[in-house]
Specification:
heterodimer, A: eight-stranded mixed sheet, B: 589 residues, six-stranded mixed sheet, 18 helices
């Protein structure tokens, strides 16, 4: 019996640890709405997160949730999908989790293209450790670890994803819930690795990249009449352009998923019956006679 | 003449093909009904650098090398220079004098030298210098009396896939080697072989047995990163697991590999990784995560000489401390160690049951001298492997809200739901959590949760692999060891007994949780206790002291030069102390 679930059915009773006004509230709200709209079932959804303020999100999404070690959400998510391809797998983390400590896994997850949706909640700072600079902090950003101003060029994660063979690359702004929900739905529906970078302001520690700053510094690709999200060159152009930040679906492409190349048409591995000995096992040792 | 007992070493430069020939000879010995052990001593490079491959054959199972090499096949002078002192008095050297000349410095009385222009014969008579290995096989075959029919049959089997031309080339190369012996040498080698019955046996490498055990135990997910000497397991599983519906991922690093294994296991699939010291170090944080998430997983640790890069292709037992104690915080974990190729199969299969029944990481510890060595063994009883998935919940039993993934239970094991199970949704958090999985730093809960997790180490004890006790149980000299040292210790025992020093030997197979009772019972009443291990600090010996207490009559017999023990080294160490020495000297130092 398929009862209709609402966004509330994806809520947990765990109280939120986020500061009032945190951009991450918008992200969880959109994800829950997207899940409800798409008819996902909590029992068939795995939600994998890393460490940091953003990493708390898995605890607020009713599902099989996983809150692992710092930077490793994507290896876990990739393996969950391989282990049970029938699941909807969502991974989430912050700019530090995904672009610093987990950067190595990020580009390899992109190139492997498992059917996983990855939400990067980018607040351009390290919130949970009280405001140090992050891989996406602006040059000159002054923090406790960069008192003379951040000397490191901010990382363009979506451009990295595009270069690494990304098949769904999008950016949202957490104070635009409707657009974000639609984007989450498109990302979850995309057959392959879908990355959604969400501009998610930290109201406590980042006094530069505020809601107001974002409102003044973003634009929507939907406003560009000739923009084609299937055109990689165009995507690179908007991603590399200095100045205003593009929002929307930046690039999409259909490419075989990791599961389709490895497990193919076989049933989900997690469903295999391994409790009875396989008669073919004994034959293996014939090669060692 | 020494009959049916020979240790042959092939020495030359890496990449010259001696591996294929060595494997071929190992196969011939096996097919002649002999028991075989091989040891690879390779440099950590692909081309060049001295390499040697030891193949030992005898009438009784030997899981290690003999005291000496009986016959060295030396493809260059360096091989003779390096190994001349390992040749048994009365042994022989087949020396390729095509390019090098034997010097007086490498001539020893009692060693016989057969100088054969192997490369020249290969080039001039067969037309391909590359087959000089096979020419040497012909020379060796004639000198020690390998059964010709078996040799030719095995050559055909090995080279068949390369076509008739290659088979023919190699057969002619063997014949050329045999003819050279017939034409030039009258002196017998002093060694001889007789053809017996092969029987229902296998010849298998330790890593293959581990992999096979994992597959039969239902492992259907593996992620790993190539690292010597563990890569064989990754490659074996990549070949076989997909045929059984599984999947193998070559991860971008060991951090990813272990987290993938955790992810797959979280999703309900029996999963493992294989690695060696450096990779093991990188996995440490995530192993802690698996412990606190109570996720079953198996880690195959194929130890090599460390630290850092160390000596990647050499053997060592220096990772025991790391497996038992590494990591921040405290988790329950299990370390088991097979001592033979056969045990590598069965104990790996057992590891999956322990992991899943007690929901924790289980390490299978092997080392280069075992995992990359081949040995003959009875056919494996795959049907005897059972699968016990423990408290894995099935659909239809759980009610969300009532279900407690981390329920406090008497045995410390809680019911485990995996994604797809109705009513079982929970948060698996590396943060401390309550029985429902909700993150909490409540002090009372913390203490209770620590106790619950650690309690598993006690409840599992009856199911852990028991040690093997070898030799004379009432002997007053006791020896303790594990892993690849099983072979040389057991062999040393036989000879010590003949020389009037009977011994008892505890081959430990569970190293953690430490089998305190087992060790206490074993050492009771011993005059001397020797702990034989391949490391500098005596890790197992210290562990015994740490758990059992100070034992003034306990001595560590240590070897840490990258090479496995030879029996005589253990005999000398034991005999010196029994004769009154204060402590044995490190071997090979």
């Amino acid at each position: 019996m398929a009862t209709t679930l609402t966004a509330k059915d994806f809520a947990t009773t765990t109280p939120s640890w986020w500061c009032p006004g945190c951009g991450d509230f918008g992200v969880i709200a959109s994800l829950k709405q997207a899940a409800a709209d798409m008819g996902l079932r909590p029992k068939d959804t795995a939600f994998i997160s890393g460490i940091g303020c953003s990493g708390k999100i898995s605890g607020y999404f009713h599902s099989y949730a996983f809150h692992g070690v710092h930077g490793r959400a994507l290896p876990v998510a990739t393996a969950v999908k391989l282990a049970n391809k029938d699941l909807t797998v969502i991974a989430a983390g912050g700019d530090g989790d995904g672009y610093a400590i987990g950067a190595g896994h990020f580009m390899h997850a992109v190139r492997r293209n498992p059917d996983v949706t990855y939400i990067v909640m980018d607040n351009q700072t390290y919130g949970l450790t009280k405001g140090q600079s992050s891989p996406t902090s602006a040059l000159g950003y002054v923090t406790g670890t960069s008192p003379g101003g951040n000397p490191d060029e901010p990382l363009n994660g979506l451009a990295v994803a595009l270069a690494a063979g990304g098949t769904f690359i999008a950016r949202a702004f957490s104070s635009e819930p409707k657009a974000m929900t639609e984007m989450m739905k498109a990302a979850i529906a995309h057959p392959g690795f879908a990355i959604v970078e969400v501009m998610s302001p930290c109201v406590t520690f980042n006094k530069i990249n505020t809601y107001k700053w974002f409102k003044e510094n973003v634009y929507h690709l939907s406003d560009l009449p000739d923009y084609d999200s299937k055109n990689r060159a165009q995507a690179f152009e908007v991603l590399m352009q200095p100045g205003k930040i593009p929002l929307g679906i930046i690039y999409t492409e259909i490419r075989p998923t990791l599961e389709s190349l490895t497990i193919k048409d076989s049933p989900a591995i997690a469903g295999l019956d391994i409790e009875t000995a396989n008669p073919r096992y004994a034959a293996i040792q014939e090669a060692y006679r | 003449m020494i009959l049916n007992n020979v240790e042959v070493m092939f020495g030359g430069q890496a990449g010259d093909g001696s591996l294929t020939t060595g494997d071929l000879i190992a196969g011939v010995f096996k097919h002649m009904g002999l028991e075989v052990y091989t040891y690879k001593d390779f440099p950590s490079r692909i081309r060049g650098g001295h390499t040697n491959y030891v193949i030992r054959a005898g009438e009784t199972p030997n899981y290690g090398m003999a005291d000496y090499v009986d016959g060295l096949v030396a493809f260059d002078l360096e091989a003779v220079e390096k190994h001349i002192d390992e040749i048994r008095p009365g042994g022989f050297i087949i020396f390729d004098n095509s390019h090098d000349t034997l010097t007086d410095a490498v001539r020893r009385p009692g060693v016989h030298y057969y100088e054969v222009p192997l490369a020249k014969i290969a080039k001039e008579e067969i037309g391909l210098e590359l087959v000089r290995n096979t020419v040497s096989l012909g020379v060796l075959s004639r000198l020690i009396g390998m059964d010709e029919e078996t040799v030719f049959g095995d050559v055909r089997a090995v080279y068949q896939r390369k076509g008739d031309k290659v088979v023919d080339l190699n057969i002619r190369a063997i014949q050329a080697g045999e003819k050279y012996v017939d034409d030039h040498f009258e002196r017998p080698s002093g060694y001889g072989l007789t053809k017996g019955v092969d029987g229902d046996r296998l010849i298998m490498m330790g890593n293959d047995a581990i992999s096979y055990g994992a597959l039969v135990a239902g492992c259907r997910f593996m992620a790993g990163y190539p690292i010597t000497p563990a890569t064989d397991v990754l490659e074996w599983m990549a070949k076989y697991a997909p045929k059984y519906g599984g999947v193998v991922v070559q991860a971008e690093d060991e951090l990813s590999a272990i987290n993938m294994v955790i992810g797959a296991s979280f999703a309900g699939v029996r999963a493992m990784t294989s690695t060696s010291g450096p990779g093991q170090a990188l996995m440490t944080e995530a192993i802690g995560l698996a412990g606190v998430l109570e996720i079953p997983l198996v880690v195959i640790e194929c130890a090599r000489a460390g630290p850092s890069t160390g000596m990647p292709t050499k053997t060592e037992q220096s990772n025991l401390n790391h497996l038992i104690f590494s990591g921040h915080g405290e988790i329950p974990r299990v370390v088991i160690a097979p001592g033979t190729v056969e045990e590598s199969f069965y104990l790996t299969a057992t590891a999956f049951n322990i992991a899943e029944k007690y929901q924790l990481p289980v390490f299978v510890l092997s080392e280069q001298a075992l995992c990359q060595s081949k040995a003959t063994l009875p056919s494996l009883d795959v049907a005897s492997v059972t699968v016990d998935r423990g408290k894995l919940e099935r659909n239809g039993h759980l009610t969300f809200g009532e279900y407690r993934r981390f329920a406090f239970t008497e045995d410390g094991v809680s019911p485990r739901a995996v994604p797809g199970t109705e009513g079982g949704m929970y948060l698996a958090a590396g943060s401390e959590h309550n029985d429902h999985g909700v993150i909490t730093e409540d002090a009372r809960n913390r203490a209770k949760m620590m106790e619950k997790r650690m309690r598993k180490l006690e409840t599992m004890r009856p199911e852990l692999p028991k040690a093997n006790v070898l030799g004379d149980r009432s002997a007053r000299t006791a020896i303790i060891g594990y892993g690849s040292n099983r072979g040389p210790i057991a062999e040393a025992q036989d000879r010590l007994a003949l020389a009037g020093t009977p011994t008892r030997f505890l081959q430990m197979r569970t190293l953690w949780p430490f089998p305190e009772d087992e060790v206490r019972d074993f050492i009771a009443g011993a005059d001397h206790i020797f702990v034989v291990e391949n490391n500098f600090t005596g890790q197992l010996e210290r562990l015994i002291r740490y758990v059992v207490g100070p034992l003034p009559n306990m001595h560590a017999v240590l070897k840490y030069n990258g090479k496995p023990f030879r029996p005589v080294e253990i005999i000398d160490a034991v005999a010196s102390v029994v004769a009154g020495a204060a402590a044995p000297r490190p071997v090979g130092a």
